[in-house]
Amino acid sequence: TALAGIAATGGSTNGILHLLALGREAGVALALDELADVGTRTPVLASLAPSGRHMAEDLHRVGGTRALIRELIRGGHVDGGAPTVDGSTLEAVTRDAQAPDGDVLFTLEEPFKPTGALHALRGNLAPDGSLVKLAGGRRVHRGPAAVFDSEEACTDAVRAGLVREGAVLVVRYEGPAGGPGMREMLSVTASVVGAGLGESVALVTDGRFSGATRGLMVGHVSPEAARGGPIAIVRDGDTIAIDVEANTLTVELDDGEIAERLTAWQPPPPPYAGGVFARYRALVGSASEGAVLRPVS
Questions:
Q1: In sequence order, what are the residues at sequence separation of 6 or more whose Cβ sits closer than 8 angstroms to the Cβ of residue 209?
Q2: Where are the domains positioned within the chain?
Q3: 3-state DSSP call for residue 133?
Q4: Model confidence over 48-98: pLDDT tens digits?
Q5: Rounded distance, CA 193 to CA 189, Å?
Q6: CATH number listed for the domain at residues 118-283
Q7: 187 given a catalytic annotation
Q8: Catalytic option among 210, 222, 288, 297
Q9: SS3 for 48?
Q10: 172 vs 181: CA distance, rounded Å
């Protein structure tokens, strides 16, 4: 229900991260690809920014979450028999909700978009998965890597005019352990759009993105660079291919070259030698599992 609601409103990849974490804490087995599949097949019913014209308050004005869930129940995307906190069912508490207005909230028969925008990509660059949210535009990109070991380094390069059209910006060591904390790449994505490169470059990172991100931006790459994932050994000029239709994210290197580079790879010095951040860095798990803290063995 939660992810169907996120997908139907054009929500963020962060929703999948949060649900993976909630599932782990609750002892419910959830998988990245399983959640992404819901995010892909659920139609987008609400025209909300950045892919639509309206704000969340406009959705509230025309019936809000109750109206949305009633429509999702009608289409079989949500189980109407699921219990709510007061003991009644979702179907019961949404039965008298407003009908879609056709401007902010749409019907299943005439959705704002027929399929969702959330996709999981895998490949030799993301063996444990990655996430992309498409607000429209390109679904395939192939180009040379421009590699940066921090958000700030990439942002500075974009603002200095050092990034060329067609490039794939690789921002690494920004994952749960590498950051530490898995920051949203807000300054990078804003700078790319501001430089007029939003439709000509792609971005791949082990960090996260805001729900307002535009363009072909792949995040949550796992394993992350700080844990020795393949993203750690990508070099400037390596060709990276993104194919949302095929659900793949690859670097065009043979297995032997990747293995050789991984063997030679050395992790950079940790950003924190002690304190709570160092402890967090040591205990945090993969983004593909919700980036939750692992038990101390």
A1: 12, 13, 14, 133, 184, 185, 189, 217, 219
A2: 1-93, 118-283
A3: strand
A4: 988 899 999 999 999 999 999 999 999 999 999 999 999 999 999 999 999
A5: 6
A6: 3.50.30.80
A7: no
A8: 210
A9: strand
A10: 13
